[in-house]
Write a structure and sequence with these properties.
mainly alpha; elongated
Length: about 500
């Protein structure tokens, strides 16, 4: 038996020993390819192009999500050498170089840091690729640009006018008439990555921050184009709102001219995708004039009533005493007439008609509220039940009325729409937090229901999200916004 066990162990170990002899780990492959890549000299011809292609394919095939195996100096030297060796007319190789940049500088296990001259070299190469190469390469080049700009706004301040200035390179991709929403979404990510704080807590200047704000607002105020996929449009809005949220976390205040338009955008998209809601973004919301005094009439106090009686008694007329006595007699007669109805005998309880049980005053009051259609918060209970029923019907109908593909499409669409509502409420919360309470009070009528019209159809407000949004995170965010409004 011992011999059989030894033979089995030897057989099981043979493939592993043979495999170790010819398989290299990712670190060895990277060092070998990088050394060969750094030794190349720029040339022309198909042979040089083929050699570059093979090296880039081998480098991109490595697993960069594993613990760090890339030496910092080798990684920086590799990306700079790639910008030198790969000309922009080799568009396929340019996209592979962009993939390599994202692998090395991304959020994986490597995270090669580019700064100074190396960062400028890579940025200039990618910006020229976006400008020169054909449109089919824009997805890769813009993604790489967004990665290079992430939290490096102050370090690339010399390129801000070229990127987001008047007629800048990124501005053309976020115009309302730009057809490709995938490219537009990546360009939006490039724009708001510029306004993030760097590792030292610095940001770009206020002028460029206002430019980024205007760019994002123009995208959010653009109506949905016809014949555009709903999921793609929702993803574009989601990316823009995420950028607005990042921007609001950086700036310190909002100009009064921009506050109304920002609240209008947040108010529309916090209800985006809910049944019965339309996607019509108003250009601006205007504050309601707030009175400095209480408009409700002042209730008379006991002291005021006594003073009124003294004034009326001090007015002397020849027949004043007679009139006063007649009034007292008349009031006494009215009190005597009303006393039997108001105070029934204690020994004889009040009887109801035969066959009819006595009605409780609370039940009568509830019945009266149901007849008016009134409930807590000004919303009728039937309205809430119809709303949730319609949402559940939409979710369950996919099993019977839609195919599997259509059901998956609706599920993804509802998921993206719920994320849009959550981020829109985050933006609204940030806006409320940085705005003066007295200024924000003028916009309460646009965010909270009007209590004066109880029973009447209510316009969608923050309470609509709190009571009727099917996403728990969206309802929680709406409650956070409400607490911020009433705080202080």
């Amino acid at each position: 038996r011992n011999c059989i066990k030894k033979m089995a162990e030897e057989v099981s170990l043979r493939p592993q020993r043979q495999q170790r002899s010819f398989v290299q780990n990712d670190g060895d492959v990277f060092r070998r390819c990088t050394t060969k890549f750094l030794s190349l000299v720029p040339q022309e011809g198909e042979e040089f192009k083929t050699e570059l292609n093979l090296l880039l394919d081998e480098l991109n095939s490595l697993d960069y999500q594993t613990p760090k195996f890339v030496d910092e100096k080798l990684g920086v030297g590799l990306v700079c050498k790639a910008c030198e060796l790969v000309p922009l007319q080799y568009e396929l190789l340019v996209t592979k170089v962009c993939h390599l940049f994202r692998h090395l500088t991304g959020f994986g296990g490597q995270q090669v840091l580019l700064h100074g001259s190396s960062l400028e070299t890579c940025l200039e190469y990618v910006i020229q690729a976006v400008t020169v190469c054909r449109p089919w390469t824009l997805s890769d080049t813009l993604r790489t640009l967004a990665q290079l700009l992430y939290e490096r706004g102050p370090a690339v301040s010399m390129y801000l006018d070229q990127l987001i200035g008047p007629g800048g390179m990124l501005v053309q991709f976020v115009q309302p008439d730009y057809p490709d929403l995938d490219i537009k979404r990546v360009a939006i990510a490039c724009v708001y990555n510029l306004c993030l704080r760097d590792s030292e807590g610095q940001t770009i200047g206020d002028e460029h921050l206002r430019t980024v704000f205007n760019i994002l607002m123009s995208v959010l105020q653009t109506p949905k184009p016809e014949q555009v996929d709903d999921i793609l449009f929702a993803k574009t809005i989601l990316s823009t709102l995420q950028g607005m949220r990042n921007l609001l976390s950086v700036i310190t205040d909002i100009s009064p001219d921009s506050l109304g338009s920002l609240l209008a955008v947040c108010r529309v998209y916090m209800l985006y995708g809910l049944p019965g809601q339309t996607l019509q973004v108003p250009a601006n919301l205007y504050p309601t004039p707030v009175s400095q005094y209480d408009p409700s009439p002042k209730r008379p106090t006991a002291k005021d009533r006594d003073s009124d009686k003294e004034e009326s008694s001090s007015q002397f007329t020849p027949r004043g005493r007679k009139v006063k006595k007649k009034r007292q007699k008349k009031q006494q007669a009215e009190q005597d007439a009303a006393r039997p109805e108001a105070r029934p005998r204690q020994n004889t309880p009040a009887r109801s008609p035969v066959g009819t049980p006595p009605r409780s005053p609370l039940k009568a009051q509830d019945r009266h509220r149901r007849e008016r259609g009134d409930s807590t918060g000004g919303y009728s209970s039937s309205e809430g039940s119809d709303y949730r029923g319609s949402w559940r019907g939409l979710a369950s109908s996919s099993e019977s009325e839609y195919s599997d593909t259509e059901a998956g499409h609706l599920t993804r669409l509802r998921s993206v729409m719920s994320r849009v509502r959550e981020v829109a409420l985050n933006c609204l919360h940030n806006t409320v937090q940085m705005t003066d309470k007295r200024v924000m009070f003028g916009y309460w009528s646009h965010l909270l229901p009007d209590c004066s019209s109880v029973g009447a159809p209510q316009t969608p407000t923050l309470f609509t999200s709190i009571l009727k949004d099917p996403a728990p995170k969206a309802r929680g965010n709406a409650l956070v916004v409400l607490s911020s409004l009433v705080d202080g």
